[in-house]
Amino acid sequence: SLRRIKASGLKLQLCTNETQATRESFVRKLRALGFEVSAGEVTAPAPAACRLLRERGLRPHLLVHHDLVPEFAEVDKTNPNCVVLGDAAENFTYANLNEAFRFLIGMEKPVLISLGKGRYYKETDGLKLDVGAYMKALEYACDVQAEVVGKPAKSFFESALAELGVPAEQAIMIGDDIVNDVGGAQQCGMRALQVRTGKYR
Amino acid sequence: SLRRIKASGLKLQLCTNETQATRESFVRKLRALGFEVSAGEVTAPAPAACRLLRERGLRPHLLVHHDLVPEFAEVDKTNPNCVVLGDAAENFTYANLNEAFRFLIGMEKPVLISLGKGRYYKETDGLKLDVGAYMKALEYACDVQAEVVGKPAKSFFESALAELGVPAEQAIMIGDDIVNDVGGAQQCGMRALQVRTGKYR
């Protein structure tokens, strides 16, 4: 169906909440499955966060997955004035959480940017706490509210529209998640279509 | 002043939120400082939690500090139907947090008991996230509300009164913390007195 959309001349942008790897490796996985997409056709939380950091002159301390670090290669990370939190998985150690907390609590006005707010997810070896749980821990400790990048945040869909160069009224979001995909897109003025595949129940 | 209170014939119960060690080791520390107290004169979150577990037939999975584990020696921990969370410090690993989460999410009705709800505290090597932050993470992931044992919980002061064998009207709470000590005791029908020492500012 991706091929048919492209063949018809429609512009396409994939919106994913994947934060355990760079867009490049995400695209490699898709290509291995036979989908012809490029990194530029993917909107993901990390690049959206980079854009936000640039716009606001923020220098992050990163608590993210090892494999995601390259997405932030171009970003100035000296003398941090915000914390960017992703699904860090094995990097969610006691020491790393305390370190991120100390950066936040040491700021005059703590800025916490979270690459999602999922509660948990399933892997082959069982359920895992997702980034949202750690976001809540830091929010509580520092008495701040995190800014969430990624679906269903409005700014995330605006990012995707900017990449497409298309206004919201001329775009349609197709997804399997009623909150993250359909709800988020509608809040942004887009039409949305829910497919009954993937996580649809 | 402890000696004068005891000499006057008044009954005494120390109420602490200490959860990184057993009452026995807490008392050893106090005795080394010259205070003549016994473990029976200390009300602490872990023993209060044990009482609550017994009353409700709960079998805990423990995520607590190594040094606190002996407090739960008598408690049946097979086939857990609740999680008891304390300031586990180095035990707050990614694996241990996921394990506690899996126990909770696997319960028909998750029961999370937290030995406090502090945000953070200071140690010689810097600020550390306290049990409250991890409590919020698990609360969010499992969509439950933790039951907090320890000051300022009403049940905690009731526990202390039960140990004393004295009704609330005949007891007075003396402490340096306006919320945890004074507020908690007053909610329980006790009078309270704030001293301008310790953490008082």
Summarize the structure in words:
Two copies of one chain form a homodimer. With 201 residues, chain A is α/β, with parallel strands linked by helices. Chain A folds into two domains: 2-44 and 151-194, Rossmann fold (3-Layer(aba) Sandwich), CATH 3.40.50.1000; 56-148, HAD superfamily/HAD-like (Rossmann fold, 3-Layer(aba) Sandwich), CATH 3.40.50. The first copy, chain A, has seven helices and ten strands. Chain A has helices spanning 2-7, 23-32, 45-56, 94-105, 131-142, 154-164, 178-187; strands at 14-15, 42-43, 60-63, 82-85, 112-114, 120-123, 126-129, 147-148, 172-175, 191-194. The first copy, chain A, has a four-stranded parallel beta sheet with strand order 3-4-5-8, with helices on one face. A two-stranded parallel sheet of chain A has the order 1-2. In chain A, α4 packs across α5 (131-142). The A-B interface holds A 89-90, 92-94, 97-98, 101-102, 105, 119-120, 126-130, 132-134, 136-143 and B 89-90, 92-94, 97-98, 101-102, 105, 119-120, 126-130, 132-134, 136-143. Chains A, B: Keywords: Cytoplasm, Hydrolase, Magnesium, Metal-binding, Nucleus. Chains A, B: Belongs to the HAD-like hydrolase superfamily. Chains A, B: Its EC number is 3.6.1.1.
